[in-house]
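Intended use. Records like the one below are meant for learning the mapping from a protein sequence to its folded structure. Do not use them to infer anything beyond what is encoded.
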Amino acid sequence: MKNIIWLVVTAIITLPWLFLALSGDSHHLAQTNPAFVSFLSGMAIIGAAFILSWGAELSERDIPRSLALIALALISVLPEYAVDLHFAWVAGKNPEYKAYAVANMTGANRVLIGIGWSLVVIVYYFRHRKNHIELDNSQGLELSLLLLATVYSLILPLKGTLSLFDAVIFFAMFLFYAGRAAKGERHDEDLGGIAGYLDRRLGNAARRLVVLVMFAFAGYAIWLSAEPFAEGLITTGRQTGIDEFLLVQWLAPLASESPEVIIALLFALKGKGSTGIGALISSKVNQWTLLVGAIPVVYCISAGFWGPMELDHRQKEELLLTSAQSLFAAVIIADFRFALWEALVLMVLFIAQLFFPQEWIRYLFSGLYLVATIAMLSTSRVRRQMLWNALLLRKCDPSRFN
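Structure written out for the chain above:
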């Protein structure tokens, strides 16, 4: 009964915005109360994202385990894609929106690591009194692609553009990732929560039909919610004097990233810390490949030309800081062990830079991340070898060094 209640409540929180959007009243409300529009559409995105996640988890019965993790991660970040690609599309016609596309993408990536990754380890410690999470060796594929994509991402702020060439590189990484994952074995572990409840009570045909319905409903809700949510944030910032860049960078990801983080935390509470971290690593790979690659494609289609999307100083600084944090985090877990103190360092560094919006602070924290990364690599042969394997497109396997 508890599972049914949660499923119903999650569907219900999407309905107020769906009713307004389908009735046509949302346009008037957007002009008079944009903050309320962002709230309602944001709640619809959160509810839809939970439904997507449960549907993706339920689909694990029918696809290989690694591919299921990719599907779960990809579907979980669909709200993030919808919001960011809306900004990229409008940027093709209004250059001001390029800043918002970069803001949302960098904010989502930094929140995922600084808050999401860290909280999984912290919750795991307080629930099970273990001061580290041992990552499963099978997650070497995700780690390899994360390291590779992060190293390439460091080029972007240096050249100051996001181009179709970058999109080809990022898409190729994701296709390689998905192709390797599709060769994995099927996932036979018992599912938990709502996905487990549905799995135990549905036959194969009914389960697949329910998955399709969940995907269709949630996808439609996100499609109706992404644009008003994004535009409502920008209008609210302009009316209240709050920096729109910061609203888009931090408030939008809190709505779009919260479901996948909560699901990862539930894994940690159940003692499956490695699964929780693995899902967030896969989400990070999705964002660092498909999402970043899709931005210049959508921008070029909207603008009607095939040139690169030029980045200004602020956008290059944000990309550099995001890439540096990502590299530091990836190197931390390159030994397939995520300690509590490492999670606390990631969280403290992330929170600290929020209080200092100055340009030199972004360069300072970028430098701190890179120096810390070099220090960790210089003192750990395992981490150095893992990074080298990733650059050579070889699967990371720590057992070789045990």
